[in-house]
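Ticket #4471: structure export looks truncated?
Reporter: QA, pipeline team
Priority: medium

Steps to reproduce: submit the single chain below to the structure queue and open the exported record.
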Amino acid sequence: MRTLKEDFAWDAAATSRNLLFYPGEQLCDYAGKEQADDKERTRCVAELFVREFLKRKCAEKEINALLPDGELDEFWRKAGEDFLDVQKKSRLIRKKLWNPANPFSGSCEISIRERLRILFEETDGFIPVYQQSRAFFIPFHFEKTDAGNGGIVDLVGKPIPKWQAPYARLFPDARLRCIVHCDQEGIPPLTGNSFMLPLYLAFLRSIERTIHYNHLRLVATGEIDKNGRLTAVDTKEKAEGFQVCFYRKSCFFFPESEQYSIPQHGNEIPLRNMTLAELPETIRILIEAKGLLVPTFSYALDRLKVLAEDRNSNYGQWDVMLSRVDNNMRAFSPLRKSNRKPYLQCLMLKSSFLCHMGKTDEALALNRKAQEFADNNHFIPDYLRLRVEELVEFQDREDFAAIAAAAPALDMEIKENDELDELARTDLLMRYCGTMGQAHSFGDLAGEPGFSRWKAKDFFDEALDCAIELSEMRDKTKLTRNEINLAEGDVAQDMNYRFLWYALFEPETEDADNAYEAAKGHIESNLQPTEDNPFRGETLCEKNRQYLVRIKAFSLYRYWMRSGEVPVFDREDLLISKNEGDWLPALTGKYVGALLAASGKKSEAASLFREYFGLLDEKTDPIMRFIQMTFCCEAFRSTGDESYCKRARTLVEGLREIYRRSSTLKAWDHYLQKGDAAVFPGLDYWY
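Actual output as written to the record:
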């Protein structure tokens, strides 16, 4: 590599971008020499400012040594630390960054504005490279050019030899040129194919415009092989360099590998091995979850539809879903009339996600805020759907009295409201009946007056009828494959509910087997990947399959508790992978552990309880704590391990006030106090 003096002597105008390969101390030393060329000195200062802008305080010492009159402080007062909105920052550099104290300060201010302009407006991304243990992030941009003039070149127009073939494979259209902001003659050789992922993401952003993100807050590395699949590359040094060089809210995307699969920091994002077709939607989801864009109204409106679909197919990452809706919601102001419906939809999604996360009180508070907003703006179907979802939240709190008080009026309003069309009415009835089927099932088990298992069965049957009617009512010739999947997903969910009834009240009977086979057959036959998104259909299928597996394990567990006879089971068919969710696999672990212990396999059961207990260990939400407490009780009963009993008692203490109306909590508490002298309350609980 050339020295700094040689770099400037070779071609100062073109090679000043090579300054990124020099340590900050060396740049500071060169810029501090008054006998050096002023343009060269100001370019060194500009490079230090770019580093400081990308990562606060990484060049503060050097800049203050060269510009001691408060220039950096004034710069940050005007710039602000966060730079999510690049357009806003682009407007900033059209004005003076500070009032120069002397000619050198003034020259630096001009040079810095130009370097930042290039960074904001002309740079499309960064290519991470490393030499030994030090990582560098080379800016690049794309240009459209005449046919045959494409390829990847350096700043002085020389092709980069090792990158030509993979670049041509990635971008077969020869009218696209990538300019890498360096002079390759004066730097370590550019080899390896890890430049491909950052270039492809930048291509989707700047040329195709199919994904949106702030290019200063997203850095990536990764190869794309000859089959069009994402492939792992050396990552450790680049990830370490990323933490040194970029703002703390930036993210580093990389293909996971055995060598580097577990992120060292929360802003390091591993990507599974996937095809180019899968990549855009995966990146969109992560960009939204990590807040790497300022959404426009049209973008957020489109993504709102996807979020609503993903709610039906998601079966684990509710925190990611919540972040996505929060970040997109910034595009909608309830003060603008055109924004009111999407704003309401965001409130509804957030309430639903919080409910799925077990944050019942937060979900209920947001639900009521959304109800008021929907009522005031005369969004009738949404208002009624929120009231149905409120029943779910009452159920999670075991507030059966509130359900009994609210349900009859809601039932009548859905059936008699003349502002609902038949499609909306049937959809609301499907949701209402499914919810009331669960409420009557759980209320019956809890011994609540007015709640009946037979009413529950009727409600589940009616919900399934409505789901089938909805599926047939929609003109499928006008629906996408994804919309058809969602309709069939409702049928699958209600078939699962129907099987749940048998698991609760008539486990492992012939009718229960028939209900199980019907649900399984529907899932496998009708929930397929979509044409517009091949993975959402797969996720919807897997979500319903996992719920069905959980209910099947539950059915076997309840059969054993009722009859004392351990049924034949295959543990591998019943366990859900621990990487695919939280409470669902934890519960299957509880059921299978109990069955193993009952079969005489105590050590195997103890091992399984230990393995699955941790999935709920960090959960702080009441309903998840309740489920964890029942897990501990079963583990204690099955293995005799007193540590589970002790943990369960601690959990009960924390739940008393929240579940003060709960007869089921009192039953579990009684069992923990009396042990074998009390009846184990598992048959009266629905998880």
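Status: closed, not a bug. The export was complete when the record was re-opened. Leaving a note from the reviewer for reference: Strands lie at 125-131, 134-144, 151-153, 176-180, 218-220, 223-224, 230-231, 251-255, 268-271.
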